[in-house]
Design goal:
- The structure holds 2 protein chains of 2 kinds.
- Chain A is mainly beta.
- Helices cover about 0% and strands about 60% of the residues of chain A.
- In chain A, β7 and β8 form a beta hairpin.
- The radius of gyration of chain A is 13 Å and the shape is globular.
- The termini of chain A are far apart.
- By secondary structure, chain B is mainly beta.
- Helix content of chain B is about 0%, strand content about 50%.
- Chain B is built from no helices and 11 strands.
- In chain B, the strands form 2 sheets. In chain B, strands 2, 4, 5, 6, 9, 10 and 11 form a 7-stranded mixed β-sheet that branches. Chain B has a 4-stranded antiparallel β-sheet with strand order 1-3-8-7, with no helix packed on it.
- Chain B is globular.
- Classes of the chains: A mainly beta, B mainly beta.
- Chains A and B meet through β4, β5 and β10 of A and β5 and β10 of B.
Chain lengths: ~110, ~120
């Protein structure tokens, strides 16, 4: 089966840096995705990793270590609008290449 | 703009009264998904279509059915909604999933279902 774990909640200050971790166990790993979801809205795509290493996209970066089953999303220069849930999702070849979502991390950015 | 559209955004139904949620897409993606998301939980995949091939998740209740009459449209039918079915229902699409390609899912805005 699949298992994805993330911290439930995090709090950070405007302008700071925050790292949201995700650990996963899956048998047919084929990519890890991070999504942002504001309350009452649909998830929106942030980043994708399939090879080990860091992918940087502006204020957001995502890291993957396949051997450790570990990823993190790094948010720099936090803004109030970054307050949202951040979902880690793994695509699994043994699950019809479907996505398995983690429980999400609710980030609160304080002034 | 190409997008995934869900109607209605909010749906109120009565206990046991059938309800249909709609999803359409202008992305011409061949895969469409329906997810159920309850408050503070991860989206849970109910089923997906790969073109016309229907794939049901093992733990999706029989109360939930789906139709995909063509590439652009997909419907979620809840035959006898219970109080526990109140949730956000998300439709998503993606292209063919090729090994190593960044084929993300594109989500619609969701339909929030309330069961009275």
């Amino acid at each position: 089966g699949q298992n994805i774990d993330q911290p439930t909640e995090m709090t950070a200050t405007e302008g700071a840096i925050v790292q949201i971790n995700c650990t996963y166990q899956t048998s047919g790993f084929n990519g890890l995705f991070w999504y942002q979801q504001h309350a009452g809205e649909a998830p929106t795509f942030l980043s994708y990793n399939v090879l080990d290493g860091l992918e940087e996209k502006g204020r957001f970066s995502s890291f993957l270590s396949r051997s450790k089953g570990y990823s993190y999303l790094l948010l720099k220069e936090l803004q109030m609008k970054d307050s949202a849930s951040y979902l880690c999702a793994v695509r699994d070849d043994n699950y019809g290449q479907n996505f398995v979502f983690g429980p999400g991390t609710r980030l609160s950015v304080l002034p | 703009d190409a997008m995934v559209i869900q109607n209605p955004r909010y749906q109120v139904t009565q206990f046991g009264k059938p309800v249909t949620l709609s999803c359409s897409q202008t992305l011409n993606h061949n895969v469409m998904y329906w997810y159920q998301q309850k408050s503070s939980q991860a989206p849970k995949l109910l089923f997906h279509y790969y073109d016309k091939d229907f794939n049901n998740e093992a733990d999706t209740p029989d109360n939930f059915q789906s139709r995909r009459p063509n590439t652009s449209f997909c419907f979620l039918d809840i035959r006898s909604p219970g109080l526990g079915d109140a949730a956000m229902y998300l439709c998503a699409t993606s292209r063919d999933q090729v090994q190593g390609w960044q084929e993300t899912q594109y989500f619609g805005p969701g339909t929030r279902l309330l069961v009275l």
